[in-house]
Write a structure and sequence with these properties.
The complex is a heterodimer of chains A (556) and B (525). With 556 residues, chain A is mainly alpha-helical. Chain A contains 24 helices and six strands. In chain A, the strands form three sheets. In chain A, strands 1-2 form a two-stranded antiparallel ribbon. In chain A, helix 10 crosses helix 11 and helix 21 packs across helix 22. The longest helix of chain A has 20 residues. With 525 residues, chain B is of the alpha/beta class. Chain B contains 13 helices and 19 strands. In chain B, strands 1, 5, 6, 7, 8, 9, 10, 11 and 12 form a nine-stranded mixed sheet that branches. A four-stranded antiparallel sheet of chain B has the order 16-15-18-19, with no helix packed on it. In chain B, helix 10 runs parallel beside helix 11. The termini of chain B are far apart. Classes of the chains: A mainly alpha (556), B alpha/beta (525).
Amino acid sequence: MDRRSFLKARRAKKNIVSTYTVSGRTSTGLNQYSGSWTKNEVAHLLKRTMFGATLPDIEYFSQKTMEQCVDELLTITSPMPDPPLKDYDTGDAQNPDSDVDAGTTWIYSNNEDSDVGEKRKQSLKKWWIGILLNQPRNIREKMTLFWHNHFATEMASSQNARFAYKHHTLLRQNCLGNFKALARSIAIDPLMLVYQNGEHNSKYAPDENFARELQELFTLGKENNPNYTEDDVKAAARVLTGWRNDELSNTSYFDGSSHDTGNKTFSSFYNNKTIQGKSGSTAGEEELDELINMIFSKGAEASVYIVKELYKWFVYYEIDQAAEENVIAPLAQMLQNYNWDIAPVLSALLKSEHFFDVMNQGCFIKSPVDFVVGTCREMKVALPPGSDYTTAYAACGELLWLSSLMQQELGDPPSVSGWPAYYQIPTFHEMWINNDTYPKRNQFTDTLINTGYTLNNFLLQVDSVAFARSLNNPGDPKMLVEDSLAVLYRIQLSDTIKEQLKKEILLTGQTNDYYWTNAWNTYIANPTDMMAYQTVHTRLSELYKYLLALPEYQLS
Amino acid sequence: MKRRDFLRNTIPATILPSFVNGHTVTALSPSPWLTSLTNFATETDHVLVIIQMNGGNDGLNMIIPRDNYSNYYKARTNIAIPENKILTLQGNAATGLHPAMTGIQELFNNGKATIVQAAGYPEPNLSHFRSTDIWMSASDSDEVIDSGWVGRYLNYEFPNFPSGYPNATMPDPLAIQIGSVSSLTFQGPGMGMAMSISNPTSFYNIVDDIKDPAPATRAGKELTYIREIARQTELFAGAIKNAASKSSQQLPYPDGNILAAQLKIVARLIKGGLKTRVYMVSYTGFDTHSMQAEEMDTTTGKHALLLKQLSDAVKAFQDDLAFLGIEDRVISFTFSEFGRRIKSNYSMGTDHGVAAPMLVFGSKVQPGVLGSNPSISANVSVNDNIPHQYDYRSIYASVLEKWFCADSSALQSILLKNFQSLPIIQDGSCNGINELNKKAGVNLISNYPNPFTSQTSVKYITQGGHTLVQVIDCMGRVVTVLVDKDQIGNTYTLPFNSTGLAPGVYYLRLQNGPLQQVKPILKVK
């Protein structure tokens, strides 16, 4: 049964708002998906693995098989982005970074002035938005944000923007790498050492902050009931004593004199393992290795935990019994078999019939960043040229601010648990949408279409006419609606509604399609005729404002 | 639509089982109060404001034991508040306030503040994440509940919500969260019960859409949810805008104080006539693992600034409420997911701890200090914690009972258990007569011998009714329950056999109606 007839069958009973039940459940598992491969499935794959699905990307991947598409998305050949630039003026800082020329990168210049630090962090966040807007055709950016949410840190915790850049580079470089190796790197990553007080953790007073989150949030989780104890937290804190940061060299290092050289004994959950206390310059590394090995020896707990996180990131927040058995369990086993390599597991998930199951399509509430960046990409919003870095950074700063208002600020999640939408039972992704944020989403898309955002002399705005022109047959109002929806919506609209959209907006209440076709053709024939342009522009802007404001558009 | 049908239709399948298997089955079955759905809600113009102090507030530097200052100082020398800087409380020589809290000192001395000592819960969890959920859901430590305590209260009062709302009886949002984030506190069984707003005057026009029915898939479930938010926003936006614009002049609030700015909105909306019952405001920064106080002057620093924010904001709010003539309708209380360790660490901070005081404000509180200062021994170890004297849910229960006038069966279904009622709100707020228990100074529970090696006799006095005697260890874990039943008022003695327990400090805890006492006992080798 194809998706549309499936929906039709399901739709027999009339639904009333707030009397809603999900009647369908799926028992699909990891068998490779072999169903129809149309633009619908391509859009589903792209919207989940990238930020928005653009028309050119949909066309590009439609030429390939499902397997080729997933393989390509998971093969990152694009180079790491160039580092962030100095887009700021530090005139009023006490110690301005005058060694860095405007428009060049600041990442090589150590500067401990807090005003400079703040401006650099802003520049870093804008730079990140810029990468998202210009993302390559692969999964890198969705996975980088995944790890940012998982190993959450707040830039606000440190004045040092170089630590933040280093941290996020670590995540981006290893976004499809090895979970265990990444967890080890994170444990002594400078920004994490600041954020979770590791840099203050000493034999005189072990600081439990990171030791707790390492187990509770980063590796084992708490939902699958791992029985590590408070004493395990304390023992792990002692293992991790002695790591310090050096701002000048932008690295962390081990200070043996602060390290607790006593033996650390863990509970029966870890088979009463004792990590022998060591001294000397390599003691920190050696004991850390042992700690990470010990934690990852709890293979079942750690693999299930991270696989569920991936599932919630790419499929849906609710994991029912069937998914637990048919998807989570085998993927968790696979992750252990591959010694914690993430890529093969993701490949299996994204190629599975479970991932493409109609039950799992269109049910993902877009995060604010996905919403803001995805809208710009899908609607082909023109960006300032990279050569005008000041304006380009200003535009990214605006989008950063807007997504923060909708409750997601890159680089500064609300806590070490990441964003509540990925952990708060029972509402999860629904946390993103409330009476405050929903109107803000509407306001953003309306403004982007109506007046745009002015930055320096650049107008960041949707060009509704240009978007329509990029479609296959914009002169046919029916096709125009159909093709627009194929890019923008994951929820199928009924023929009645589509007819209504066409008639009430494009035809201004007329019944004959010819009126639109005529208006469009007049414009195409005389693109400089303002009146002809206005006729189609007004209607198209209304159409897209309407489509982007609806609840349907919040879903991917 | 009948309530049961409503629940069956709206609660996602995944939530329902845990809900039904929990303690709330009675709320789901038809009962007399379900028969009259219209005008069911209890008539009250009372408002509750919940102030969340995010991160785990160091209660011991907020409410300071003056009667045990030397041990307090010894346990946390690097961050201890100098004795002569502690703010005193009228009529309570034993207890003092952090010097930044002059506003709250004034409120206390004017009878508008109550301090509840050492609020917490058994088997404390030291994770921010989990402990916040516990406080918001009012669950036991080892139990996961998907709804919040206020959400359940509002669901009890307005069982049909959101179907048919707003209406003449309740034209306004049931609860308002100031800020853009929804909180678990307001999660009802299946439906969020609150509206989040960050600015009461700017709402955006939600499109009045034409729509297909939602498909019976997960996508349909999410679509239905978003449509409901859109509908509510549209409906409630007018009411809120209206209230915000009606409100008259307000007294000044301190600048640059994020909490004060939120409370100012609350005062404005209450004065503007909203019938909304519960507001929640929150601010963050209490996770003071390091540098919570300045080395040169421990009365300054991160924690001092946070407490000053609280004190200044609450004082301005309370003054404004009086000025607006609505003071008698509002009470507020603070909470934080946990307190911090007794002993400070070397980075001038404190690690995650257990129980901490809660503050209750309002012209209708029963002023005073409830409970005794936490006992701090002369040799506090790194892991020692303050055991809870009051279960935090007793504060919730007292507010629901004495402020929102919920009856005992309702309390049971909202809080999932029976909790003691505390004298924190003035009698007569519900026109009922609530008995006062002023037993300060009377020794209700004691043991002999003390210290002891294996066995000791525990003697306690109960006024009759439900009596609970627990032994708690220094981590706050309940080691054993000696008594948990209805008893006739009398003095009882029973043995406590400590075989198998490590030597150290334990606490005897007696709970009997509103009465509460905690006594430290010492087991030696």
